[in-house]
Amino acid sequence: MLDMEQNTPGADFLRSLGFPTLDVHESFTHFDFTTPGRRVLVIGPMGSGKTEFAARIWRDASVARKKSAAVAAMTSTGQLDRRNVFFIRSDLDSKRFSEYPEDAMAYRSGYIRCGDNIARVRDSFGFEEVLRDNPDVGTYIIDEASFFDERLAYVARNHSIEKGSMFVFPTLILNFRREFFNSTARLMLETATDIIPLTAYCEHPDCLSSAFYTYRYYQIGEDECPALYFDPLIVVGGDRLKNSGSEPNYAARCEEHHFLPGKEYTFFTLKPLGEEASRGNPEPLVKELSALQEKPQSSLLCDNLLKRYGDCSDAAIYMNSMKPGHIPEKALAYLFCEQNLLGESLLVKIASDLRLDTAYLEQVLAENRHPVSFSQPYLL
Question: What pTM was estimated for this model as a whole?
Fold first, then answer.
């Protein structure tokens, strides 16, 4: 017979009913609106139920608001009441769940309607406006907070300390590269008071392991094509499966089935080429980008993938990463946005000389907060 977990209300209750000694695991309990100043980080891969967890908080608040004045005294600090909940989404995330009502807090298995207590904002300054306009709101749910600028973490921390408000962040902390999503994610982790980790089943068809990672891939016909390491950090899209070489899909995956080709190439080849270009010699970088555009099989990327994965059991999946489009555009955007190795004028010149897809580049750069216009002339 297994030992019963001591000191848990659930175990004590079952023992009082005469249940035998066994393991008792605490499930989701009603949310605590009494403790002021909390910053609750709800983390996990895509599909792990982060927003659905937030929806349960919303439903708990609707029940708690029906309680007496004595309860209101426990959940309030000054003018605000933590049972009053407000939902915030990023403007960047507007394409997801576009089929739902405008006031919906939507997740994969449904949605709840928030009425007037919902807003889309672009950045932490818009977030501050929502705080000023709603002085009686005590709990804010900020979906996918990693899409916002770093300042958001400190705005939330300061407001929670000064006002006693609570913030719930259902968000990705790790990106598709299994690294911190960005500096905003790192700062939220540093300033959080509570962390609730969620997992999902690995979505690989042959696996039932717990998934901690978000996997990005492109579906081209029957082929699963993992995103290369230097794929754009942020790609805004919907939540439906896409069969496309330019629009990615996402899945929760365990470590074994999270394929991430091109990381070695990025730091052994692509970044050094960018550094050489930044020192005034862009020709080697242009040569590689031209190969990626015209003859991918002759590129240094293809050579690296063959040497790195050619003999492994999943070689075909790794090599499928060469099939999606816009690989030279993605490489150029990575060097410009994330490594800051290319100036704007050089970026535009290379894109123009190679006749790259500048419309795609403009979209990717804007989504990653580095907007560039390719219609303006630049002089080197």
Answer: 0.82
